[in-house]
Amino acid sequence: MFNRVITKVAVSLAFLILGTLPLAAASFTVTPVRVELSARQLHATLQITNSGDEKVTVQLHPVLWTMAGGVEALEDTNDVIFNPPIVTIMPHQTQAIRVGLREFGPSATEETYRLILEEVPANFDSSLKGLRTVLRISIPIFVNPSVPAEAKLSWDLQRTPDGGATLSVSNHGNAHIQLRQFSMVADGATDPSFSQSSFVYLLPGERREWTVGSSHLSGQDAFKLQAATDGGAVRESLTLH
Asked: What pTM, to 2 d.p., does this model score?
């Protein structure tokens, strides 16, 4: 399913100075949008497509990916190998990139990395009164543990002094899960009291929080939570403590 999805993220290194300036940008896409490796699947192939009318040079850089309290941490790593590390792609052409691990050893918890693909700016015509945008795409890489992998979520709803609440979810499992959307419905009601579209990854051991205003609680203490994840639907009963 993920192989049919294309992600394109444009990071503009531009500042607005005295009006609107013309922008020049290359354009490339990457499939799949995430990679999963395991003892049975030691390598994967990425397809980089230059969808623009000019050649584009793309540089690849692997990082170790961790999360703590919703804050992402990226560290340089040599664990991930790939070939080639830099590539120039002609207009409307596609380049295959082979990705794998330098070593695969036993682990009780999923390992997580990101492969950053960034456009290398070409010579830009300085006579043009504009700025150049640079594309940067970050592809998650998940390495399955050597034991059965499973995300285990626990939800909690805690009252706050201002009359609202803090909704939190923790992943106590040994694998990630992608939380795409969730909603809380008060017992006996039909319309959601609170909902979010998040599309966030919860890595093993990670916790996320959301502030729920008092107006969303409507004096209720019991709620049904429904969430959509990449692992299927989640349903939980919540009590406001």
From this structure: 0.81
